[in-house]
Amino acid sequence: MKNKRSGVINTIEVTKLNGSPILINADLIETVEETPDTVISFTNGKKIIVKERRQEVKNLVKSYKRDIYAN
Questions:
Q1: Which stretches in the chain have pLDDT values below 50?
Q2: What one-character DSSP code corresponds to residue 1?
Q3: Is residue 25 in a domain?
Q4: How far apart (Å, rounded) are the C-alpha atoms in residues 8 and 2?
Q5: Using CA atoms, how far apart are residues 46 and 49, in angstroms rounded to an integer?
Q6: What global pTM score does this model have?
Q7: Nearest Cα to 13, choosing from 1, 25, 22?
């Protein structure tokens, strides 16, 4: 992951229920819930259901944030 200032959008990779990987902008995540599927809600009102558990998404976001602030 590269910082936005370098021109690359910062993303994390998650997996849709159909098995397709998708990159999402972690800065736009508003909430992550297990209902029992994991639903990621974004600040623009959109939602996506992913295979990863809530804690896994949390860990991906934490890792992303560490990378951002380390640079």
A1: 1-7
A2: -
A3: yes
A4: 6
A5: 11
A6: 0.82
A7: 22
| Residues forming a β-bridge with 39 | 33, 49
Angle (CA) 33-8-28 rounded to 5° is 25
Q: Is the peptide bond before 21 cis (omega within 30 degrees of 0)?
A: no
Within a domain: 70: no
Q: Which amino acid is at 61?
A: V
Per the structure block, which two tokens stand in for 34?
A: 């297990």
37 lies in some domain:
yes
SS3 24: strand
Q: How far is CA 42 from the centre of its chain?
A: 10
For residues 23 and 35, give the distance between their C-alpha atoms in angstroms, rounded to a whole number: 22
Tally of structural domains, the chain: 1
Q: How many residues does the chain have?
A: 71
Amino acid found at 53: R
